[in-house]
Amino acid sequence: MKSENKPTLYWFLLKYKDWNFYIASTSKGLVFVGSQKKPFGELSEWAKKRFQGSPLVEDEEKLEPYAVEIIEYLEGKRQTFTVPFDYNGTVFQLAVWNALCEIPYGQTRTYSDIANYINKPAAVRAVGAAIGANPVLITVPCHRVVGKNGALTGYRGGLEMKTKLLDMERQGSSSNK
Q1: Domain Methylguanine DNA methyltransferase ribonuclease-like, which positions (predicted)?
Q2: Using a CB cutoff of 8 Å and minimum separation of 24, what contacts does 156-161 make?
């Protein structure tokens, strides 16, 4: 494989208040939002699997439009994202990730809700696996998916990050009413 065919991955360490995570994009759109306070290794390991052979280039300017929207979200000033994404996933994963984007700000859904939404009611476990493979935390809001009893369940960014995002959204959605 020639490396000319490999898209460049641009990355940047987004720091805002006590938030600190890596984000990455191709020239087509956002491909990765990392976990809170995780090392660069999280991004580089993911990139090795998903974009084998692609160069990783630090470029704050290229990532500025993504960083701006994520910071607006973290400030409670943005509820949806308008930046382009460059998803890499199976048809099933894409269906699940698109369903996540339909969950309203400040609300949660269960894994079964998502399975029903994509017309695969028996695929609850597969939905969970697809959610776990979501490469763009926050922007594709997998933090809005909870267990059947409302319990917080696994999250790539860690349950502390998930709790923080949900609390922030609940406060934001109640103050917007």
Answers
A1: 9-87
A2: 156/35, 156/132, 157/21, 157/34, 157/35, 157/36, 157/38, 158/35, 158/36, 160/36, 161/35, 161/36, 161/137
The type of residue at 61 is E
Of 2.60.40, 3.10.20, 3.30.420, 3.40.50, the CATH number of 3-74 is 3.10.20
Query: pTM for this structure?
Result: 0.91
Over residues 156-160, the mean pLDDT reads 91
Three-class SS of residue 154? coil
The catalytically annotated residue of 14, 130, 136, 142 is 142
Strand partners, 15: 20
Q: Is 101 a catalytic residue?
A: no
**DSSP single-letter state for residue 36:** T
Residue identified by tokens 């509820």 is: 79
Give the tens place of pLDDT for each residue, 27-36: 999 999 999 9
Assigned token pair, 40? 């660069």
